[in-house]
Design goal:
It is a single chain. This protein is of the alpha/beta class. Helix content is 38%, strand content 25%. Strands 1, 2, 3, 4, 5, 6, 7 and 8 form an eight-stranded mixed beta sheet that branches. The protein is globular, with a radius of gyration of 18 Å. Bound molecules: benzoic acid. The site of benzoic acid (BEZ) has 8 residues, from loops.
Length: 251
């Protein structure tokens, strides 16, 4: 799924994406001079953390806007605009790391993506990732779906949110040995009073793509107000994130 990113808004208001990614980095060993790819590097905030672990780093992202932002913020690192299912490295990597990215890739491209990641690792290389798992943001998606259906519209479910069983099996089919896998709830606090509305406008683009802005506004307002009792807690909006976190080896 290709969307046009507002990289400035992303950097200013959605920095939690990178902050949470720092926990995932704990699954990556210290580098000893090896190479690491930050797959779906966005503005490069975690590429920098990988470099701090002692790796020579390369950030890869499919978005031109994000690659531009990453290069501006980190002129010393290398970045490559490329698709996760197709990127090719000059030198195979010791680590491929990916945070909050794989759910953007359509389900029918996941096998090609996993095979590509496997092919771009050295023998004994490691793949570490975290992204939306089964049930991710389901309260938000359900509320939007209801508001779409009320207007005779279909809400397309475009994200890939697998269970541990599904994703672990896919990686094994592609040749990986899965050494760690977990699925867990991670209610995620939003920065502003309009937090849920801003979150929807930032991340849920495809279903609204060909819609009049008045209809989109109505749907968003209705969905947000229907979720207030459950997701607005002590003056803060929380989104009902569920994460899948995996470590796998190319043996
Ligand atoms: C996520 O990071 O889980 C996510 C982001 C945007 C839309 C859906 C899920």
């Amino acid at each position: 799924m290709n969307i046009k990113w507002d990289s400035k808004n992303y950097t200013e208001n959605f920095s939690f994406v990178g902050k949470y990614g720092e926990d995932v980095l704990e699954l990556v060993d210290e580098g000893k001079g090896g190479t690491a790819v930050d797959l779906g590097c966005g503005n490069g905030c975690l590429t920098e953390k990988l470099a701090e672990k002692g790796y020579r780093v390369l950030g890869v992202d499919a978005s031109e806007e994000m690659i531009e932002e990453a290069k501006k913020r980190h002129p010393d690192f290398e970045f490559l605009k490329a698709d996760a299912a197709k990127f090719r490295l000059e030198e195979k990597a010791d680590v491929i790391f990916s945070n909050a990215v794989l759910h953007w890739i359509d389900a029918d491209k996941q096998e090609e993506t996993a095979k590509n990641i496997f092919s771009q690792l050295k023998k004994d290389g490691v793949f570490v990732c975290e992204f939306g798992g089964k049930g991710n943001c389901e309260m938000v998606h359900s509320a939007l779906e209801k508001a779409f259906e009320k207007r005779g519209l279909m809400y397309p479910r475009t994200f890939y949110f697998p269970s541990v069983g599904e994703y672990g099996s896919l990686l094994e089919k592609c040749g990986f040995k899965v050494t760690y896998a977990a699925l867990f709830d991670r209610p995620t606090e939003q920065k502003t009073d309009k937090g849920l509305e801003n979150w929807i406008r930032m991340f849920i683009k495809t279903p609204f793509a060909d819609m009049e802005s008045e209809t989109a506004d109505e749907i968003i307002t209705e969905a947000v107000s229907s979720l207030k009792d459950e997701l607005y807690i002590n003056g803060k909006w929380f989104v009902d994130y569920v994460r899948i976190r995996v470590k796998a080896e190319k043996g």
